[in-house]
């Protein structure tokens, strides 16, 4: 399901009977809802949430059960990788709102989002090793979000992290009581909506570019981006508003 109000688009994984598995139809729907009118000035932040006790159980194993259908298997994993990388390429921040269990590619989805807010009852695991399918693609996002030894323990054992452990190791941004999850997620979303979309888009793209570079290259690139930021209409508007002690009026 997709709904939007006040600059915030909420995408809800809504197949709780199948534990919100990332089947081909679910992945196709998620990609479509992420990309829908993404350049609109009205869209400022995306929240990914879920119905039911499981945020997302990962791939639909029924789609992977036939060893002969290599083409379908490739399609599933390639589309999943496309959606995960798309999240970081979008010009708006993406927040995972997690209330329940996130496993395998579901854990990958959380790790791929820019921000993740979880309820205290949430858990995170990569249990593929237990059924003979090592979570190699989830490991890409996991290994970039967690310390290596924590990620590898999850991948080697399949044992879950609690919400507090996920917070301690950096997989999620905040942990709140279940009854505060919506309030906290909207608080972050609304704060993001107060800023310029064009400035945030530049900042997000730059962050993901520099994080993979060595220190000197990263500083060289971001120095140029700071200068570019000053040429944006909203870059100038923000500085003028600060000097004039008034609230900025963004053009986005």
Automatic annotation (TrEMBL):
Sorted UniProt keywords: Fatty acid metabolism, Lipid metabolism, Mitochondrion, Transit peptide
Protein family membership: Belongs to the enoyl-CoA hydratase/isomerase family.
Originating species: Orthonyx spaldingii (Chowchilla)
Principal subcellular localisation of the protein: mitochondrion
Record GO terms (molecular function): hydro-lyase activity
Gene from which the chain derives: Echdc3
BP terms from Gene Ontology: fatty acid metabolic process
Protein name as catalogued: Enoyl-CoA hydratase domain-containing protein 3, mitochondrial
Top-level lineage group: Eukaryota
NCBIfam families, per the entry: PRK08139.1
Role this protein plays: May play a role in fatty acid biosynthesis and insulin sensitivity.
Signal peptide limits: none
Pfam families attached to this UniProt entry: ECH_1
Cellular compartments annotated: Mitochondrion
GO CC terms: mitochondrion
InterPro entries for the chain: ClpP/crotonase-like_dom_sf, Enoyl-CoA_hydra/iso, Enoyl-CoA_hydra_C, Mitochondrial_ECH-domain
């Amino acid at each position: 399901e997709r709904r939007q109000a006040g600059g915030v688009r909420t995408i809800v994984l809504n197949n709780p009977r199948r534990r919100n598995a990332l089947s081909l139809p679910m992945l196709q729907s998620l990609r479509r809802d992420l990309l829908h009118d993404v350049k609109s000035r009205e869209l400022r932040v995306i929240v990914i949430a879920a119905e039911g006790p499981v945020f997302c159980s990962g791939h639909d194993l029924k789609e992977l059960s036939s060893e002969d259908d290599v083409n379908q298997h490739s399609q599933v994993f390639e589309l999943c990788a496309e959606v995960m990388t798309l999240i970081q390429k979008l010009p708006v921040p993406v927040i995972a709102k997690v209330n329940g269990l996130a496993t395998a590619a579901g854990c990958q989805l959380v790790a791929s989002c820019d921000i993740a807010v979880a309820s205290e009852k949430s858990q995170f695991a990569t249990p593929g090793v237990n059924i003979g399918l090592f979570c190699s693609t989830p490991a890409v996002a996991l290994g970039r979000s967690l310390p290596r030894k924590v990620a590898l323990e999850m991948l080697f054992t399949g044992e879950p992290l609690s919400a507090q452990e996920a917070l301690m190791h950096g997989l999620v941004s905040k942990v709140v009581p279940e009854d505060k999850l919506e309030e906290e997620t909207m608080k972050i979303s609304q704060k993001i909506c107060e800023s310029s979309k064009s400035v945030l888009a530049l900042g997000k793209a730059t962050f993901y570019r520099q994080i993979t570079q060595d220190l000197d290259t990263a500083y060289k690139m971001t120095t140029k981006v700071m200068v570019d930021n000053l040429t944006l209409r909203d870059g100038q508007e923000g500085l003028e508003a600060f000097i004039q002690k008034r609230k900025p009026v963004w053009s986005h």
